[in-house]
Design goal:
The chain is an alpha/beta fold. 44% of the residues lie in helices and 17% in strands. The longest helix is centred in the first third of the chain and has 22 residues, at 46-67.
């Protein structure tokens, strides 16, 4: 069934996904409440967060469409680029590139688009949180392994994989607004309220001197494809020696995410529980928290 979805026209995928988004909104009081509260906190008017209900469903339907897509069918005809010169400059530096994508638009597409266009020159390693179900965890891993693109689980071993990639001058992609486990983040403001925020993104940049870019993969209307927008940091990343807790770096990244989300608030996942308390850290096979 999932493979069949990958062969559907993108416009039909979006139609089905939009209906699914409103079905979930209708059936889940907690989701409705959280979406409304998060959007109101950010000052997003109802007309725009209602669009986000549809767009969230589109994102859900796009996942199997992308994961099971025939690799011989290039994504390039569906993509337009804004700010790709920033990637070219980062690659020319040869010090690695950290590509940060919040829960907006099709964040899965952003990494795949990079891999297809730039991966032969500088591959990208993407961080993901493995599902608890073994079959889904295997699917996550294999679906994110493509030419020019590797997957790293959110474990100590996975973080080391990211560091090695950056130190080799390669690229890394992650979602910096993902709520990390306890002890792996700090509380910093996000749209006017404290949010437990990972320190990993800033630490990777501080320790490796990698360039930092922010990516928004905007869904275009009527199945017309996607627009990849790249943005550089508007402020300097705090130095590691000046940021012992990681709070300065996490705050800087949080401000950049807010600015990016405000460019296209109708495609942000406002229903994501961004302000929740972190879960207790699990223990990895190597004996450390993950």
């Amino acid at each position: 069934m999932l493979a069949c979805i990958s062969r559907l026209p993108l416009r039909l995928v979006h139609w089905v996904g939009g209906a699914l988004g409103w079905l979930v909104f209708a059936l889940s009081p907690s989701y409705r409440r959280r979406l409304r509260e998060n959007a109101a906190r950010a000052g997003i008017e109802p007309a725009r967060w209602r669009q986000a209900v549809t767009q969230t469903g589109c994102m859900a339907a796009e996942v199997p469409w992308l994961w099971f897509r025939d690799p011989s069918r290039p994504l390039a005809p569906l993509l337009t680029w804004d700010g790709d010169a920033l990637i070219e400059r980062a690659l020319a530096r040869g010090r690695g590139l950290l590509l940060c994508t919040p829960h907006i638009g099709n964040f899965e597409m952003a990494a795949r688009a990079y891999a297809e266009r730039f991966g032969a020159r500088q591959p990208i390693t993407v961080l993901y949180r493995p599902a608890r179900q073994s079959w889904l965890a295997r699917l996550q891993s294999t679906s994110r392994e493509h030419p020019g693109m590797n997957a790293a689980p959110a474990t100590l071993a996975g973080v080391r994989q990211l560091i090695r990639a950056l130190r080799k001058g390669e690229s890394v992609g992650l979602l910096p607004d993902q709520v990390p486990p306890e002890s792996q983040g700090v509380w910093v403001p996000f749209f006017g309220a404290p949010a437990y925020t990972m320190t990993l993104a800033a630490r990777l940049a501080q320790q490796t001197e990698a360039a930092v870019l922010f990516a928004l993969c905007e869904r275009r209307p009527r199945g017309a494809g996607f627009a990849i927008h790249l943005r550089a940091m508007g402020e300097a990343m705090p130095l590691l020696r000046d940021d012992p807790t990681g709070a300065l770096g996490a705050s800087a990244i949080s401000r950049e995410l807010e600015a990016l989300i405000r460019e296209c608030p109708e495609q942000y996942l406002w229903g994501y529980n961004r302000h929740k308390n972190p879960r207790a850290a699990a223990r990895s096979a190597e004996g450390g928290p993950v």
